[in-house]
Write a structure and sequence with these properties.
Layout (H helix, E strand, L loop, with lengths): L2 H7 L14 H11 L10 H13 L13 H21 L32 H13 L1 H7 L4 H13 L1 H14 L1
Helix pairs in contact: 2-3, 5-6, 5-8, 6-7, 6-8, 7-8
Length: 177
Amino acid sequence: MDAREYLNRKGVGLDRDPDKPNTLEEKAWERARGAGSHRPKSGTPYDWEDWERYHDDLAEGAETLEQKIDKEAHRKALAHEKEQAAKAREAVGHFTPPAKPAVPEAQAPKVVPAPAAAPVAEPASLQWAYRALAVLFPPLAVGLTEGGALRVLISAVLTLLGWLPGVIYALVWLNKR
């Protein structure tokens, strides 16, 4: 809570005078502005810093200008930024793939579908290994034979309910596939 709020709560109204600075910062800036081109003769170190900051912000010949902004410098900075943006856009190339020449249908090669591949027969030793695995750990046997996530889950649940239902389910799956 600042002093103004405190005084307003106590019933002492401090109406802000727009022509007169009220805060310490506003007062320091007012002293910096009032000092003109010479340094302040008294005041706190903050007054000196504010005076230097104020005069660093001013453009050359600002005391003769009504507005304290160097419009030409601002225009030059904006033009420079636009130039840099244009150079950046030019530096990034746009790739357009070359167009493929159209081939008439008479000259186009005909695509013949490949014959369906016959299922690869597994060696008997591998089939026996899957069956042995089905007896030892049924969900793993179902998973290794590409049973899918649902079948593996069913096999795991049946194995948890009792070892024998899981084994039976895995052996039926191995014979079915």
